[in-house]
Each structure stands twice: as C-alpha cells, then as structure tokens.
Design a protein that fits this description.
Order of helices and strands: HHHHHHHHHHH
Main location: membrane
Distance between the termini: 54 Å
Strand content: under 5%
GO cellular component, one term: plasma membrane
Shape: globular
Organism: Ramlibacter albus
GO molecular function: transmembrane transporter activity
Largest sheet: none
Number of helices: 11
Structural class: mainly alpha
Helix content: over 70%
Keywords: Amino-acid transport, Cell membrane, Membrane, Transmembrane, Transmembrane helix, Transport
Length: about 290
C-alpha cells in the first residue's frame, strides 16, 4: 500500500499530460476524420519555441501564451497549405503525408535547436504538495488538463463557432449549403489541436526534459488514450488519458518492468480495437449497404 498510492497518484499526473495530447488528436480527427501522427512533433517544436522565448527574457506565462498562439497559427497553416489539398486523396496517401510531416518537423527542430537535452522550467511553485504524493508540477499539469477540457467543452457546447465546427465534422456538405465556411472550420480545428498539443508539450517538458525525441513515446500513450476513450470524444480522450497513465505506472512497476512499459499502450490499442473499436465514449457508426 505504501508504494501503491504514490504509483496511482503519479499515474494520474502523467495521464493528465497524455490526456492533453489525446485531446489534440481528437480535435484533428473530428475535423478531418484522420489521425495526425505528427501531433507529437508539432508539440515538441512549439515547446522549443517556448524555451527560446523564455531564454529571451519573457516571463513564463507570457511565453506560454505566445507559444499557444504560434502553435495555433502553425496548425491552421499546415491545414490550409497541406491537408486541404489532400481532401480527396486516398487514406494511405494522407498517412504517408502525416509521417513525412513528422520526420520534417523532427529534422527541422534538430537543425534549429540542436539535439542536446535541455531543462525546461515549471511555472508551479515548490511549496505546494498534495499529501506528499504529487509534486507541484504534477498537480498543476492535471489542473491545466482539466481547464483545457472545460474550455473545449464550453466552446463546442455554447459558442457559434463550436456549433459550426460540430456541424462541419458531422456533415460538411450540408454545412456548406447552409452557409458554414467549412474550410475555415477545418483550419480552426487544426489550429486548436496545435495549441492544445503545445500546452501538452510545455507540461511534459519539465518532467522528461526538452529534446527532439521527447514526444515519441508520449504520442503512443496519447493515441492509446484517444482510442480507449473514443477517438471522436473529447471527454473520452481525457478519461482515457488518466486510465492509460495509471495502467502504465502500475503494470510497468509491478508486472513488466520499466523497460517494457510502452508495450502496455500498444497492447491496449490492439485490445480496444478488437473488443470495442468505438472506445468507452465513442459512437459506433453503422452503415447500411
């Protein structure tokens, strides 16, 4: 019991970060019905931008806000210049483009920022601790994830833009006929995904340190979280993130060891796709043929 509670707490804290990136994956999927395999590299690239802004003398939260805006613009530009041109391309072609985008961003980040491991500051004070189980940064990361989920929920539930994005995701042809600017909605979805991914990168960088490889494993866990919760469900992505974080910690500690923790996410992805492909909160799509 003495080791179980800390492992559960650490798993929840790590799961909050997975949930943030899973939420970004869901945003892109709801916009285009494709999985952005370059989401982790986009987050890593933007986290390096945040590091540069902080090193230039900006206060942390000013650099945080600036990075979120830059990430939003980056996501929208990628959609407008690249993804939009592939609207009618085969699925395999789109997957290849996503993988190419991953490699390109990874290489550009290495060229611009180098491959050395850097430290990244945490904005949360060291004076607060939850019963000795969670560090201030872990508490803050969970709080940020829940705040992002709340903003996303309110945006989609009550704002006119959110309603238009939901309509675009459900039926872009009908949405265009009633005056919705579908292209703008898709760019907005990608921009929001880029911003949410950047937040995830800035939350995980103080834990794993900042380098060009930092999001590789995180993306696998985030994808497992999105699949478990339902790839089209924002609340499901967050729930899936917390579940994956706890499972990773417990199974990695008590069953397979730290070296094989990544296999937990891979096994979970396969199991969910075989047993319940729609995920916990996703909707099964039935097509009459």
């Amino acid at each position: 019991m003495n080791t179980l509670l800390p492992q559960l707490a650490a798993g929840l804290a790590t799961g909050g970060i997975y949930a943030s990136l899973a939420l970004a994956l869901v945003m892109v999927y709801r916009s285009t019905h494709h999985v952005n395999f370059a989401q982790g590299e986009m987050a890593m690239f933007c986290t390096f931008i945040a590091s540069v802004l902080i090193e230039a003398g900006l206060p942390y939260w000013a650099a945080f806000a600036g990075t979120v805006v830059i990430a939003f613009v980056l996501g929208a530009v990628i959609e407008a210049l690249l993804i939009r041109r592939l609207r009618h391309a085969p699925v395999l072609s789109i997957v290849v483009v996503f993988v190419a985008l991953l490699v390109i961003l990874h290489s550009i980040a290495g060229l611009l920022f180098g491959y050395a491991i850097r430290s990244f500051p945490s904005p949360f004070p060291d004076s607060v601790r939850a019963g000795g189980l969670l560090t201030p940064h872990q508490l803050g990361a969970v709080g940020v994830t829940l705040a992002v989920l709340a903003v996303v929920y309110l945006f989609f539930r009550y704002s006119p833009l959110g309603l238009q994005m939901r309509a675009t995701a459900e039926n872009p042809v009908s949405s265009r006929l009633v005056g919705v600017r579908v292209d703008r909605m898709l760019a907005l979805g990608w921009g929001m995904a880029g911003a949410i991914g950047a937040i995830a990168g800035m939350m995980i960088a103080p834990v794993v340190f900042l380098d060009v490889h930092m999001m590789s494993g995180v993306l696998v866990y985030a994808f497992a979280a999105a699949v478990l919760g339902g790839i089209g469900s924002a609340p499901g992505a967050v729930i899936g993130g917390f579940v994956v974080g706890v499972l990773e910690n417990l199974v990695g500690t008590y069953v397979v060891g730290a070296e094989l923790k990544l296999t937990v996410a891979l096994v979970l992805i396969v199991a969910v796709l075989v047993v319940k492909p729609a995920g916990l909160l996703g909707k099964a799509i039935v097509v009459r043929v």
